[in-house]
Amino acid sequence: MSNSSLVSYTLLSPNHSGKRTHSIDRITPHCVVGQLSAASICGCFTSPDREASCNYGIGKDGQIALCVDEGNRSWCSSSNANDQRAVTIECASDKEHPYAMTDAVYQSLIKLCVDICRRNGKNKLLWFGDKDKTLAYEPKAGEMVLTVHRWFANKACPGDWLYSRLGDLAAKVTAQLSSGASTPSTDGTLYRVQAGAFKNKENADRQLEKIKAAGFDTYMVQAGGYYKIQVGAYSVKANAENMLAKVKAAGFDAFITTEQGQAVSSTPAKKSIDEIAREVIRGDWGNGRDRKNRLTAAGYDYDAVQARVNQLL
Ligand SMILES: [Zn+2]
User: Fold this and answer.
1) Among the ranges 76-80, 223-227, 241-245, 272-276, which has the highest mean pLDDT value?
2) pLDDT in tens, 124-157
3) Contact 93/33 with Cβ under 8 angstroms?
4) Exposed site from 33, 150, 161, 288, fewest CB < 10 Å?
5) Ligand 1 centre from 151 Cα, in Å?
6) What pTM does this model have?
7) CA torsion through residues 158, 161, 164, 170, sign
């Protein structure tokens, strides 16, 4: 279970029930009733006396914060059943009806919902606009459902401003999940996950070994005077995002880059052409352009390897 890579501020709240007892298939956006920053939203939930929390907070400028790990059940929607399965998001809003939010908040909410759906294997966000229908609905594989706090407590949450936009939110998130980032780039751009950049090659070698030891297929490139440790090279951005989530979940600081560098061989001796050719045949190096990029990035002569593959086949 990973947290969103869109998070740029973390202040964990003690107010949660530990691991969820239900897999994530709902998202519940709330209005926090105040035009607060992401840090201030987290600050609302640091005291155990408050007995409340949320998984994510979105500040008035659109900054996204983590308050409760996504894998944990937050105390947010006045419903145990809902919070066991929902990712809860507190959004900065006006203090009064209709609890309007800034465009920056709304845009971040769209992005965060796309990211939550993607990491939880969902390709559709649904909004029924009806309490009974929604709560009786059993989401099919790939479906995420929006719910609202006002169905579980005598509250206006998430406010009419956002409530009236939930259909739009669901449509925009679903559209992004089914196109855009999940289709290959047409200009040959490759998205790589970068997990470290070092002036000193020995430090880069050490980081490369750590990431390898964690089970990732990694390589080193040189660009702008730095040795950079990268994982994967994807034409589909969503695939790079999935890998990014895995690398981060393994405890590494990482981000996505489209920067290409000069391949550098890491300290461990390179394998023989013969050995690599057998790995290629086994499928370890992917296919087509991906294979070529990965071999080249790992410091191998693609043509030589391919020639040996052809001999062996
Ligand atoms: Zn609420």
Assistant:
1) 76-80
2) 999 999 999 999 999 998 999 999 999 999 999 9
3) yes
4) 288
5) 10
6) 0.61
7) negative
In this prediction, residue 181 carries a pLDDT of 54
Name 223's bridge partners: 226
Rounded distance between C-alpha atoms, residue 33 and residue 13, angstroms: 19
User: Which of 78, 25, 21, 34 lies closest to 53, judged by CA?
Assistant: 78
Instruction: Give the residue ranges of DSSP H helices in 70-156.
Output: 80-85, 103-119, 131-136
Long-range pairs, 108-112, Cβ under 8 A, ≥24 = 108/6, 108/58, 108/62, 108/63, 108/64, 109/29, 109/58, 109/169, 110/169, 110/172, 110/173, 110/176, 111/6, 112/4, 112/6, 112/56, 112/58, 112/64
Distance 31 CA to ligand 1 centre (A): 6
Residue type (1 letter), 302: Y
3-state SS assignment for residue 12: coil
- Measured in Å, residue 198 CA sits from the centre of ligand 1 at 44
299 confidence band (pLDDT: 50, 70, 90): confident
Contact indicator for 233, 293 with CB cutoff of 8 Å: yes
Domains identified in the chain and CATH numbers: 9-179 (3.40.80.10), 191-264 (3.30.70.1070), 273-312 (no CATH)
For residue 122, give the nearest of 77, 91, 87, 76 by alpha carbon: 87
Dihedral of the CA atoms 131, 158, 170, 105 (nearest 10)?
-170
Beta strand pairing call for 255-257 and 143-146: unpaired
Residue 297 Cα to ligand 1 middle (Å):
49
Least confident of 3-12, 75-84, 284-293: 284-293
